[in-house]
Amino acid sequence: MPVAVIRIGLDPVLFHLGPLSVHWYGLAYVAGIVAGLQAAFPFAARLGINRDTAYQIFWPVLIGSLVGGRLYYVVQSDAGRYLRHPADILATWEGGMAFYGAVFLGAATAFVVCLIKRISFPVVLDVAAVFIPVAQTFGRVGNLINGDILGYPSTLPWATQYTNPNNTFVPSHTIAYDPAAAYELLFSALLFVVVWKLRDRFRVPGTPFTLWLVLYSAGQFFLFFLRANSVVWLGLKQAQLTAIVVVALAVPVWFAWRNWYRRADGNRTSPAVAGGTQSGASA
User: Fold this and answer.
1) What pLDDT sits at residue 32?
2) For strand 160-162 and strand 6-8, is the pairing parallel, antiparallel, or unpaired?
3) Quick one: pLDDT at residue 265?
4) Is residue 79, in this structure, part of any structural domain at all?
5) Does residue 2 form part of some domain?
6) 36 forms bridges with which residues in the sheet?
7) How far, CA to CA in Å, does 198 sit from each of 41, 125, 133, 187, 195?
8) What total of structural domains would you count in the chain?
9) Mode of pairing for the β-strands spanning 6-8 and 236-237
10) In angstroms, what CA-CA distances link 183 with 222, 225, 245?
11) Among 161, 143, 132, which Cα is nearest to 93's?
12) Which of 126, 146, 225, 136 is nearest to 184 (CA)?
């Protein structure tokens, strides 16, 4: 074991309130949601979605995302164990959220809400493209403390060893691992910077979200080579295969949407209602 490793001795449980345990993981999720909303609300207002309407969209989408993320994790991991112990499906405090599941069901929920409220679905997706990487950046802090996203055993100077005996997520407390959660954290922060810088550059609503989705998927494809997940097929892991499918679908769908949007007749008075344009934007 090299001397120059990063040792994390934090208990995954921050404190107890009687029978209730408050986990770092849950706290990181809450902090991520709050920070993500602070970044997304001003952008939503500029697109014609006021704060009340944004909250009316946000709450059902949040529930859909949490349910989708957990169920997708259960399905792609040891589904048999969860069928034998169904109560464990709800044990999100133990870690285990598959982000693509959150995106899929969250987007489906947003689509239904937008239909009901007659709000532009692509515009709502663009607001989500600002919210998501901020929330993810904070959420990865919880993963980093938990040790539930690990790379392979490593001798790198920044390898991470989890020394707290109460941490049941890590396979060994005497081995240092490549800090895959830290790589994910840095990548999420970088994605936010990219999306934030380019959010006003596009004329076609839905483009910032597509940009985020494609870049996120590309990042997942490469980052998962560093994560100690099980190989599924052709040397690739589940998230890598999902990333390939997502990009293969997202790019042609965006081109089809862009072509339709450019051919659409009439002026759009409000981007939130009909996906209007912004002056000086392109693409």
Assistant:
1) 95
2) parallel
3) 46
4) yes
5) no
6) none
7) 17, 15, 14, 17, 5
8) 1
9) unpaired
10) 11, 12, 23
11) 143
12) 136
Q: What is the pLDDT of residues 183-239, one digit of tens each?
A: 999 999 999 999 999 999 998 999 999 999 999 999 999 999 999 988 888 899 989
Q: What is residue 84's predicted lDDT score, i.e. its pLDDT?
A: 61
Confirm whether 1 is domain-assigned: no
**What is the spatial distance between Cα 233 and Cα 74, in angstroms, rounded to a whole number?**
19
| DSSP 8-state code for residue 88 | G
Q: For the residues of 199-222, what is the DSSP string, one character each?
A: TTSBSSTTHHHHHHHHHHHHHHHH
Q: How far is CA 135 from the centre of its chain?
A: 7
Q: Which domain holds residue 48?
A: 20-274
Reported as a single tens digit per residue, the pLDDT across 70-123 is: 888 777 766 566 666 566 666 655 556 778 889 999 999 999 999 999 999 999
What token pair was written down for 103? Answer: 């995106």
Tell me which residue of 120, 106, 118 sits closest to 44, measured CA to CA.
Answer: 120
Calculate mean pLDDT across residues 15-25.
Answer: 86
